[in-house]
């Protein structure tokens, strides 16, 4: 493995991401503000309609904190623009040059995904800084929770990449995998706790969701950050998340081998 | 008549192009089905904990969601692909090919590509809406349903106009990617009942950035006794937005220098 190559890939991607500044700030502030506003009103409406002080283990303020954290953590887990990168390489025949790299293609793409996190981290710091003043500081917020949360986010980012990698490799056979990626985004938003905290689901559904990988993309890191998960639960969750990472890596490897075997390098 | 014949040609070419990519055709149909299921489940989960969401019951919210699916499917079928390419035409200088044709250039760039694969989703979305209306426990009546469907079409046109307005700055900006992002974010307000929004945010969403009108107001026209103020509001805002968009389009075309970037 050439570490200099990896370092260059990482810094190039960060510089590329920060280049279109007007666009960056427009999408950063406005899009996030709209999403936060929508969840704010949904939470207010749900609590107003129910007339109860707590729902699914959250009071109104706690649920607002959860949603806000989920939106910000989601930025670190999903890097939407790069989601099309792998399939695009296959369609354009650009994959060929990566096959000559001294680093495996999957590693190159993952490092690029990490580089793309640069702007998301800036957003996280800027928005995260004023969030406590607007929605308050969560009660279980501790240094240990933050440390465990960072670990959970790192695994979530890796898991997201490993889930989307084989989906994108379907481009070896299909004309367009964009819709498959969107399907994954829709499904993971609901089943991963981005659209609503998983504790709002029926108990039977929650048991199933514990075993699926989606929870470890959003709900698990967020609940860890907010101090809603004990150290023992965190360890158990990380084992499940890493097991899913291993399983998806094997799937990705199998699809990659099968795809490259019949790859011609011509492109569409 | 000339424009209808032209649109028939657009449809013919679009269907033949869509059938070249059959797997993608199938993927897109499944993608929209996933979107429908996710949205239904989202509202089902919320209504497990509340009886009302923005003054609407679960059954009313189901009709609203049916309206959202139909409106979105129509937009995806008729306008979405065309709107996606518009900034690229402007930035690459390809708009020239549309400006020199002997028909309205706005008509051409807005309607040229008919998304045949989304058309199948439109049939599914219509089925969902019919199901939501049929399962509604109260009496609805033919006339209110007709007004609802008419208002949905007005809302669709408003959706197109808003999409266009967020792309037209491409005439003056190097990239409209950021504005497109904002537009996509704002469409989320269209998929939630307008009744949940309060205060100045609500005022903005029904006037200056009228995304909350697109489906919520047709649904209000269906369920509210005094529906005419709602209908007039929707039609008035849509007309004003279209006149404004037309002015910006003409201004943009005058500023267009055909240079690619």
Structural description of this entry:
The complex is a heterodimer of chains A (268) and B (261). Chain A contains twelve helices and two strands; from the N terminus they run H-H-E-E-H-H-H-H-H-H-H-H-H-H. Chain A has helices spanning 3-19, 21-50, 60-77, 85-92, 95-99, 105-115, 117-135, 143-169, 178-191, 203-211, 219-225, 231-261; strands spanning 54-55, 58-59. In chain A, strand 1 (54-55) and strand 2 (58-59) form a beta hairpin. With 261 residues, chain B is an all-alpha fold. Helix content of chain B is 74%, strand content 0%. The mean pLDDT of chain B is 89. The A-B interface holds A 20, 22-27, 30-31, 34-35, 37-38, 41-42, 44-50, 52, 55-56, 173-177, 179-180, 182-183, 186-187, 189-190, 195-196, 200-202 and B 21, 23-24, 27-28, 30-31, 34-35, 38, 41-42, 45-46, 48-54, 173, 175, 177-179, 181-182, 184-186, 188-189, 192-193, 195-198, 201.
In short:
The complex is a heterodimer of chains A (268) and B (261). Chain A has 268 residues and is mainly alpha-helical.
The rounded Rg of chain A comes to: 20 Å
> What is the β-strand count of chain A?
2
- Helices of chain A, by number, come to 12
What gross morphology of chain A would you assign?
Answer: globular
Order of helices and strands of chain B: HHHHHHHHHHH
Number of helices of chain B: 11
- How far apart lie the N and C ends of chain B? 37 Å
**Mean pLDDT of chain B, as a whole number?**
89
Main β-sheet of chain B, in a few words?
A: none
Average pLDDT taken over every residue of chain A? 86
- Estimated helix fraction of chain B: over 70%
Helix fraction of chain A? over 70%
State the secondary-structure class of chain B.
mainly alpha
The helix-strand sequence of chain A is: HHEEHHHHHHHHHH
- What structural class is derived from the secondary structure elements of chain A? mainly alpha
What is the molecular shape of chain B? globular
Low-confidence stretches of chain B: none
How many independent structural domains of chain B? 1
Which ranges of chain A are low-confidence, i.e. pLDDT below 50, for 5 or more consecutive residues?
Answer: none
């Amino acid at each position: 493995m050439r570490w200099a190559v990896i370092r260059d890939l990482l810094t190039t991607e960060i510089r590329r991401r920060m280049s279109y500044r007007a666009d960056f700030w427009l999408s950063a502030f406005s899009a996030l503000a709209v999403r936060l506003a929508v969840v704010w009103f949904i939470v207010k409406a749900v609590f107003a309609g129910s007339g109860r002080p707590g729902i699914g283990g959250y009071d109104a303020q706690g649920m607002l904190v959860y949603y806000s954290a989920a939106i910000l953590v989601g930025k670190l887990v999903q890097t939407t623009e790069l989601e099309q990168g792998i399939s695009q390489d296959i369609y354009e025949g650009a994959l060929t040059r990566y096959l000559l790299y001294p680093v495996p293609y999957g590693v190159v793409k993952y490092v690029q995904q990490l580089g793309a996190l640069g702007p998301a981290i800036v957003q996280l710091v800027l928005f995260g800084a004023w969030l406590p003043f607007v929605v308050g500081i969560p009660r279980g917020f501790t240094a240990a929770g933050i440390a465990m949360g960072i670990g959970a986010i790192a695994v979530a980012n890796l898991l997201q990449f490993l889930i989307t990698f084989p989906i994108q490799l379907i481009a070896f056979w299909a004309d367009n995998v964009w819709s498959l990626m969107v399907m994954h985004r829709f499904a993971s938003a609901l089943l991963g706790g981005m659209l609503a905290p998983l504790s709002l689901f029926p108990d039977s559904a929650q048991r199933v969701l514990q075993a699926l990988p989606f929870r470890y993309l959003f709900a698990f890191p967020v609940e860890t950050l907010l101090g809603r998960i004990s150290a023992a639960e965190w360890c158990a969750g990380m084992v499940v998340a890493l097991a899913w990472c291993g399983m998806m890596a094997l799937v990705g490897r199998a699809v990659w081998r099968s795809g490259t075997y019949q790859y011609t390098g011509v492109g569409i | 008549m000339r424009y209808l014949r032209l649109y028939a040609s657009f449809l013919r070419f679009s269907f033949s192009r869509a059938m070249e990519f059959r797997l993608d055709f199938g993927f897109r149909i499944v993608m929209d089905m996933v979107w429908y299921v996710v949205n239904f489940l989202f509202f089902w989960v919320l209504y497990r904990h509340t009886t009302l969401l923005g003054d609407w019951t679960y059954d009313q919210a189901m009709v609203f969601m049916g309206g959202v699916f139909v409106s979105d499917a129509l937009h995806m079928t008729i306008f979405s692909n065309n709107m996606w390419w518009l900034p690229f035409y402007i930035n690459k200088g390809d708009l020239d090919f549309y400006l020199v044709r002997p028909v309205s250039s706005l008509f051409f760039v807005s309607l040229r590509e008919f998304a045949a694969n989304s058309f199948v989703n439109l049939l599914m979305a219509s089925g969902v809406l019919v199901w939501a209306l049929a399962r509604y426990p109260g009496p609805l009546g033919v006339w209110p349903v007709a007004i609802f469907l008419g208002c949905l079409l007005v809302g669709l046109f408003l959706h197109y106009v808003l999409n266009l307005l967020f792309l037209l700055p491409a005439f003056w900006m190097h990239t409209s990617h950021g504005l497109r992002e904002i537009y996509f974010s704002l469409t989320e307000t269209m998929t939630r009942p307008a009744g949940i929004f309060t205060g100045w945010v609500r005022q903005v969403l029904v006037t200056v950035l009228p995304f909350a009108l697109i489906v919520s107001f047709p649904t209000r026209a269906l369920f509210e006794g005094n529906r005419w103020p709602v209908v007039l509001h929707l039609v008035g805002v849509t007309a004003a937005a279209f006149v404004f968009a037309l002015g910006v389009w003409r201004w943009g075309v005058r500023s267009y220098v055909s240079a690619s970037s």
